[in-house]
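Dataset card, provenance and construction

Sequences and ligand SMILES were collected as paired inputs. For each pair, a complete structure of the chain with the small molecule in place was predicted and serialized as structure tokens. The example below shows a pair involving fe (ii) ion. Curators did not alter the output after generation; any descriptive sentences attached to a record were derived from the structure itself.
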Amino acid sequence: MGPPPSPLTVRRVQFAYPDDLDPVWVPSRPEFSHAANCISLIMPFAEPYFVRSVRAALAELPADAQAGVADYLGQEMAHQGQHKRFNRFVTARYPGVTRVEGWMRRFYGWLGRSRSMKFNLAFAAGSETIAYALARWTEKHLGTLFSGADPVAATLYLWHLAEEVEHKSSAYDVFEAVDGSRLRYAWASTVSLVALAFFVWTGSLAMLKADRRLFSPVAQFRLTRWAVSLGMEILPTLFVSALPRHHPSKFADPVFLPRWLSQFDPETGTMPLWDGAAGRAA
Ligand SMILES: [Fe+2]
Ligand SMILES: [Fe+2]
């Protein structure tokens, strides 16, 4: 009898970015584009670190616990590859953020080199819980945040968030099989969240400065309001996920993202593009 089938699908998505893609992909909310772009900038550093961390633990896993791990790693590598392509548009318009990118590279590289395998696994598992909460928050505010958004850029983010929901348990299962310390999980999750907030904050400020909107009350108010709202989604989710005997499968999935993901066409490597004018997938 072979290993159980993987519950995950690695989707080879083709994103046709136009040469003149505007990195401010939600024109009515440039601050949201900036904050989201900072998350995109983090991905080519954070996701390969998660992949290396989980891969390093594979030998310690029983065969049946390995089901789906390779596909989880495949999804993460696909995410960071697509974000890397998209990030070229961001850094071309905002060269100032390459400095923040340097901090990201050093931070995630340092974690991988200097922390224990257990800490790195706890960090990956906690980061996946944060990504799941981010997906749930985004879906709740989709009509507002993605209204008028560039269809290709919006679809990149929605595809990524939908797959984060799909593999919300993957890193957690590996962490649980190897370690499972709730204290380590809580600590590593906190470090991950603080780093994420710092990089999004500093990167967004760099982009606002380039826009000459650093002291815009509207920009600062919106960023603060989204940060508070997102914090109210992420913090309780992280708290619950750190409780004894909790498992991410107990978290309810958002409704739209998985349904939309199921419309992926493997023949063409495409899915329905986000229709920003209608506020839904076309
Ligand atoms: Fe990802
Ligand atoms: Fe993920």
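Derived descriptions for this record:
Residues 45 and 202 are 16 Å apart (CA to CA).
The mean pLDDT is 94.
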